[in-house]
């Protein structure tokens, strides 16, 4: 997989920095690789491994619960919801623990829990054992994801301050690594399922054993510049930070839009194609776009847009993706022609994602109090997750109302478009909007 990342990096065009201009795209790419600290390289490869292990198992969980375990449909949905809650809902807890105890112990604890959770899930037969395993798996991610994400963001800021270029370049590479893992993981899981689900779970656990060993060996006990925060009151200050909460709301509308890949898009594909088989190709299209286009898009945006304008452009692109489907729905196209609006939606959503996600993550360090970056990074996911929870319920209700075909998609288009008005104004020197 490191070869995959290298091939992705080699597609970058020349970056910008305070250093001498690069001689060519390949030299610029290798300069970027060399400029990354060993810690940043470890964290980025960690994200790749995390997602390979995670997506080797979780995409196949619902079918396993319904067929092998024999759970009712409502209970399968409940278990999947519990996993999401124990992960996204508790990110803020993981972030607080990172600020209190540091990155290394929280990442190591998350890896141990993920190993235990996957092994437990592989052998779980009763409903209560499955629920216990799923909760452990979710909470593991609530520990290590805020730890890794917050430290990548902090290191990216230091990288920018050292004159290497916009911090979004580092965060874009982090997104590429995660998406590459999300692409490879299901392929690995599908091969392992030829044996059985337990084998897939144990393989996922083995990936996290390797991650655990890597961090025990390579992660420093103390990261320069990071100090533990013992004072209370971080949550109170966060809830009073209107600019950060505004960012969470805007980011939450992006996540709500992304969630339509699993809610509104399947219905549209079913209508157009008569089955949901083309969904896998559309998901693959999204992953491949991120892997091969994220870095060039981020470089382009970094040369022309500040963080607020990058998020604005991304949210408007996402809105236009919904509008494409809304405009085509009255025609009632089916077959290949009927899938074109869905493909357009996926492309515009993915390009919007490429602009929104690195910019939002890069913005958090500017809005967080000193020493509270872990808490704020976790809160970004938790608060946004609550928005997705409420918004998804509302979207499901909207889709069931029997309204004219274009109306739900127009409403969904309006949400990210209106979120542009919520974005906070930048107030940091030259970056102020």
From TrEMBL:
Domain of life the protein comes from: Bacteria
Location, primary (coarse class): membrane
Entry's Gene Ontology cellular component terms: plasma membrane
Keyword set includes Cell cycle: no
CDD domains: MFS_MdtH_MDR_like
GO MF annotation, one: transmembrane transporter activity
Name of the protein in question: MFS family permease
Source lineage: Bacteria, Bacillati, Actinomycetota, Actinomycetes, Kitasatosporales
């Amino acid at each position: 997989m490191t070869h995959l990342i290298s091939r992705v990096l080699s597609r970058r065009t020349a970056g910008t920095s305070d250093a001498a201009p690069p001689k060519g795209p390949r030299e610029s790419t290798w300069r970027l690789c060399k400029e990354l600290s060993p810690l940043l390289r470890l964290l980025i490869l960690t994200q790749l491994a995390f997602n390979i292990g995670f997506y080797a198992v979780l995409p196949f969980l619902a079918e396993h619960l319904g067929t092998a375990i024999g759970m009712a449909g409502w209970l399968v949905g409940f278990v999947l919801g519990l996993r999401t809650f124990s992960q996204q809902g508790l990110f803020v807890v993981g972030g607080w623990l990172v600020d209190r105890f540091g990155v290394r112990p929280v990442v190591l604890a998350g890896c141990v829990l993920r190993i235990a959770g996957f092994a437990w899930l592989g052998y779980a037969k009763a409903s209560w054992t499955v629920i216990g395993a799923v909760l452990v798996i979710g909470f593991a991610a609530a520990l290590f994801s805020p730890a890794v994400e917050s430290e990548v963001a902090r290191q990216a800021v230091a990288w920018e301050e050292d004159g290497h270029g916009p911090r979004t370049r580092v965060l874009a590479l982090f997104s590429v690594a995660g998406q590459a893992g999300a692409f490879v993981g299901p392929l690995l899981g599908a091969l392992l399922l030829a044996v059985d689900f337990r084998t897939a779970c144990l393989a996922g656990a083995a990936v996290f054993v390797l991650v655990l060993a890597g961090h025990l060996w390579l992660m420093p006990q103390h990261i320069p510049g990071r100090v533990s925060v013992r004072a209370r009151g971080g949550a109170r200050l966060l809830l009073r930070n209107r600019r950060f909460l505004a960012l969470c709301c805007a980011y939450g509308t992006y996540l709500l839009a992304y969630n339509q890949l699993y809610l509104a898009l399947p219905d549209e594909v079913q209508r157009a194609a008569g089955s949901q088989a083309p969904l896998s190709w559309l998901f693959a299209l999204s992953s491949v776009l991120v892997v091969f286009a994220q870095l060039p898009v981020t470089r382009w945006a970094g040369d022309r847009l500040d963080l607020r304008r990058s998020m604005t452009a991304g949210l408007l692109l996402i809105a236009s993706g919904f509008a494409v489907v809304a405009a085509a729905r009255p025609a009632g196209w089916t077959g290949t022609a009927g899938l074109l609006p869905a493909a357009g939606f996926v492309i515009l959503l993915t390009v919007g994602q490429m602009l929104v996600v690195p910019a939002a993550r890069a913005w958090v360090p500017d809005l967080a109090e000193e020493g509270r970056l872990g808490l704020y990074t976790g809160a970004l996911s938790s608060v946004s997750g609550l928005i997705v929870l409420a918004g998804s319920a509302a979207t499901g209700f909207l889709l069931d109302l029997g309204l004219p075909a274009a109306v739900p998609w127009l409403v969904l288009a309006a949400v990210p478009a209106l979120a542009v008005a919520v974005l906070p104004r930048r107030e940091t020197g030259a970056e102020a909007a």
